[in-house]
Amino acid sequence: MRFLVDMGLAVRVAEWLRHEGHDAGHLDEAGLQRLSDHEIFALAAREHRIIITTDLDFGEILAHSRQASTSVIVFQLAWPRTVRIIERLATVLGAAGPALQQGAIVLVEETRYRMRRLPIGSSP
Questions:
Q1: Spatial separation of the C-alpha atoms in residues 89 and 28, rounded to whole Å
Q2: 36-46, pLDDT tens digit by residue?
Q3: Rounded CA gap, 74 and 113, in Å?
Q4: What backbone phi and psi angles, to 5 degrees, belong to 109?
Q5: Domain 2-117 classification at class level
Q6: Nearest CA to 113 among 50, 51, 90, 101?
Q7: Quick one: how far is CA 81 from the chain centroid?
Q8: Which of 14, 15, 20, 54 is the most buried if burial means most Cβ atoms within 10 Å?
Q9: What is the dihedral of CA 35, 40, 46, 52, to 10 degrees?
Q10: 101-115 pLDDT tens trace
Q11: Residue 122 to residue 124: CA distance in whole angstroms
């Protein structure tokens, strides 16, 4: 899978993903620290990357975009240490990987995660 790790998370998250065989980049590594959330979302959509972030705004941007292919993983942990982020990410990727590849938003909490497939708000 292809990932784009937001500035609120350590570069080590992208390094771990690469170690696991994924194509992952961090905004800091690419010198893109100053991009707006909308620009980050557009970049991820163009490059078919899953955004990994702590910023709830990306869920709203995704919902309003009506895109069905860009995915977002949002971490909402009480103590977001990098080692804990990686532990939870490993669990989520194992369980939600197929949905993320098709388009989903995943909210990751301490002991659970919630997932919505895309597009959000579409009619049946």
A1: 20
A2: 999 999 999 99
A3: 10
A4: -115, -175
A5: alpha beta
A6: 90
A7: 17
A8: 14
A9: 140
A10: 888 999 999 999 999
A11: 7
Closest CA to 56 of 4, 99, 12, 8: 8
Cβ atoms within 10 Å of 121's Cβ, excluding its own: 9
User: Based on the number of CB atoms within 10 Å of its own CB, is 45 exposed (0-12), middle (13-18) or buried (19 or more)?
Assistant: middle
Angle at 100 between CA 95 and CA 101, to 5 degrees: 115
Q: Which long-range contacts (CB under 8 A, 24 or more apart) does 26-33 make?
A: 33/7
**What is the amino acid identity at position 59?**
G
To which residue do tokens 């170690």 refer? 19
Secondary structure class of 23 (helix, strand, coil): strand
φ/ψ (deg, to 5) at 98: -60, -40
- Answer whether 71's CB lies under 8 Å from 100's CB: yes
Q: What's the residue count for the chain?
A: 124
Q: CB of 76 within 8 A of CB of 107?
A: yes
Q: Are 26 and 11 in contact (CB under 8 A)?
A: yes
DSSP letters spanning 25-51: EETTTTT-TT--HHHHHHHHHHTT-EE
pTM of the predicted model over 0.85: yes
